[in-house]
Amino acid sequence: MSQQSSQQLESYCTFRVDDLLFGVEVCQVQEVIRTHPTTSVPLAPAVVHGLMNLRGQIVSALNLRYVLGMPPAQSDHKPMNVVVRSSEGPISLLVDEIGDVVQVDRDRFEPLPETLQSQQREMLTGAFKLEGKLLLILDIDRVLAIPA
Amino acid sequence: MDGFDEIINEFLVESYESLDRLDDDLLALEDAPDDRDRLASIFRTVHTIKGTSGFLALPTLERVAHVGENLLVPLRDGEFRLTSDTASVLLEMVDAIREILGMLESGQGEGDNDYAALVERLQAALSTSKGVTPEDAAAAVADDQATEESVAEAVEAIEAVIADVIPAETGAAETQATENPTAEPEPVAEVTEQPSPAVAPTPAPAAEAPAEPSSVPAAAESAAPVPASPVPAAPPPEPPKPVAEKAPPAAAVASPTAAAPPPPAAPPQPAAAAKPSRGRASEAGRSGGGDSSEKSASVVDSTVRIDVALLDKLMNLVGELVLARNQIMQFSGATEDPAMAAASQRLNLITTELQEGVMKTRMQPIRNAWNKLPRVVRDLSTSCGKKVAVVMEGADTELDKTILEAIKDPLTHIVRNSVDHGIEPPEVRLEAGKPEEGTLCLRAFHEGGQVNIEIVDDGGGINADRVRDKALEKGLITPEQADTMGDRELTNLILLPGFSTAAKVTNVSGRGVGMDVVKTNIERIGGTLEIQSKGGQGTTLRIKIPLTLAIVPALIIKSGGGQYAIPQVSLLELVRLDGARAKKEIEYIHDVPVYRLREHLLPLVYLDEQLGIRPFGQHRQDLDAVNIVVLQAEDRQFGLVVEAITDTQEIVVKPLGAHLKNISAYAGATIMGDGTVSLILDVIGIAQKSCVLIEHRDRSLREHAHRGMSRSKDGESVLIIDSGDGTRAAIRLSSVARLEEFATNDLERSGHSYVVQYRGQILPLISLSSQVSDFSNSGQERLHTVVYSYEGQSVGIVVGKIVDIVHQQLGNNNDVASGRSVIQDRVTQIVDLKHVVSQGVGMSSHW
């Protein structure tokens, strides 16, 4: 993908939750889709928003706000889906808004400061310092492993 | 190398199949040692394996198969009868072959074992049967091998003629000869390719001919007249004539030289070689080999080997098609266009047929799972000195391949158990007036969309007393419970984890992996297991399993704003009560709603309450009509109250993701006609959740607790709890209104105490433990609460953990005065709720 240049460029699929910009490695993302109807699952752990029909495949949609310890969305704005691959098939992450795929230089990566709350720290691997903003990188394995 | 690997793979697949058949055939032979057809078929199988292994340069395998073959030759020729020892050593050979094949499959070549001991035993078996010394036998082995090659050329000729012989014998010789005056081997050559499996063994009979002098003249006799007939009929054919002359000498040469291989079998002229052997060939045909191979040839033509992965994929695709069909049907139902309606109707029919067809491809007779059981029984019964006959009924009953695979191990375990523990040794059986030989009957049949499998033995049955003693010894039940249990309940105790009744641990069973694992495995595929046993007369284990797992008919219902599917397997009937009737006919025992269904009390479970959509017990009366879905969960029935019943539909079961797998209320999810996702309810899970079914031991415990309450007046049921600080406490069940769980988040503060909103009331909470009074910081997410009511007021007593319900006599020998008692061998504080509540700090002011 990005190996041609001498710089170490990596591609990330970006999206926004609240005011924060997050990124997931492009190769982990299966697809990005608009709002999709979901069926809520009574008794399910809070992280599961519901189930959706992705072209005949049943996919769990996870509430990323819950994962990141953020308050529920205030507006009526419908969430979008970032479908990521996992060992157990695709899983959808609900986000507020979908951004671009960006290429960033590995040199700009930095681990997170210690002052960040532990739950949020656990879900992130680090941050890329972009111009005027930070791109927080999600640790997908940890996000998907979040227990009930 | 790839091509070679492919050949090896094909050889493996083929050989495994033949080996399975071999096991069967050998066992059948023990019962009927004179069955020539089977002997011929066994011989053919071993011979084929030997031949192919030679071709593939697998010397060890070839050697083992070769010696086995040598032993089989005289058997087939009827020189001596199959004894149990011979059968054992042959079975051992089968195992050895299987082992080598296994090595090959895992890419380790033939392995290091050279099976010298086995080869020796096989030779020994051959020599003892023949009454020759092992050296002679070994020499014969060498000779045979030499003959093999020289005979090989002759074989081709023989093959050629066999095709010719069959019409000749039916009297068509004249016509054939005239129509085709040059009845030489060449024209028939292409035909020979097909019957070749039948002919493959023929070189061996030729080689063995000297060992069987009586058959040779017979062959010569039959050979002589037959060629005679073509002679007048067909003037040109030169070859037959010399053959007729040559045949008798060939036989004559063969008969005196008993040890030497018959040279006439391999002369250069094909015609000459062909004709004398023709008698033998036709003899082989008569002995059944020819017929069955013709049959198998046609079977090979009409079947295709398919990779199971491809079938699985097809099944998935059909599942998708069914979903798409459901969607189309829904759309077409909404439009008025007749053409669309007709097309979708047709699509509907075709899909159904396709689905049935594809499902059939995955169906296999249960015989495939049963195949190895006779062998298991034989080995096991021999090793424990018992005699057991296996009877199979309904071996053609078909079920899905996945299910078949899943029940193989449980079945083996059950059968082992039956032989090891069920069927008695012969002496005991004779004493009991039963035939010396025990019978193990495997029975399979379809019933109501399910497959029933029964394993019936006529052994000693399960000794209920012994089960009870064992359960007591292992502390699985208390003596009080044991006293109240019937035989059937005691019998079913063997399904508890960690139970083994084997008086002694043998090498076959009693290793700790018990019937509970069998039960779990069967339940995992949606099946049930039950045991019936009559002391002294035997035991019946009945397994009920669904036909297939992938596509199931389901009832679609609505509850709490969502749509759910209930598999129809558990559905018994639907009952609808309108508002007025519902109010009258749904009765309450304390808080538990019941309905009298044909004079039986049916416990009612509100689905929305179970799913946590509606708080427990609220607004039940508000419904203007009550829809009750009567369901069967194991041996219980219960009524599931739902909002509406929509439809029945074929649904495709899809698994739930990792986050939802642990919710017992769901069996999976499916996609409905409109594309939405619906959850499939797990009837057993809901029954367990709502306490209609309490799992395993707990269920019987509660049952007995209740029964005990009604039976004896001097004892009562008590609830054992952990008060939160490690103290074990008991509360009289009669003073408990309900057991509830509250989320810590729902707690609210009122003055000095905590309260929670409960059924429109404010429920004050108090703790049994003096140390734990700040619930919100107790670290627990949910609080276990015992609700106590008196004089219209309720109070919640927060406990650490609900441990058990036991039936206990809180009588004289216990120190009631101090408030302590010994329950289940532990000191337990007896709590008087009324006292606790009236003492509750700060409570009285609120009341």
Within the largest sheet of chain B, what's the order of strands? 10-14-15-13-12-11
Query: Rounded to an integer, what's the Rg of chain A over CA atoms?
Result: 15 Å
The domain count of chain A comes to: 1
Tally of helical runs of chain B: 30
Compute the separation of the termini of chain A in Å.
Answer: 36 Å
The radius of gyration computed from the alpha-carbon positions of chain B, rounded to a whole number of angstroms, is: 38 Å
The global form of chain A is globular
Which structural class best describes the helix and strand composition of chain B?
Answer: alpha+beta
Average pLDDT confidence of chain B is 71
Top-tier CATH class of chain A = Mainly Beta
In round numbers, the mean pLDDT of chain A is: 84
CATH superfamily name of chain A?
CheA-289, Domain 4
Helix content of chain B: 40-55%
Oligomer: heterodimer
Question: Can you tag this structure with a few keywords?
Answer:
heterodimer; A: 148 residues; 6-stranded mixed beta sheet; 5-stranded mixed beta sheet; 3 helices; disordered N terminus; B: 847 residues; alpha+beta; Four Helix Bundle (Hemerythrin (Met), subunit A); Helix Hairpins; 6 domains; 30 helices; globular
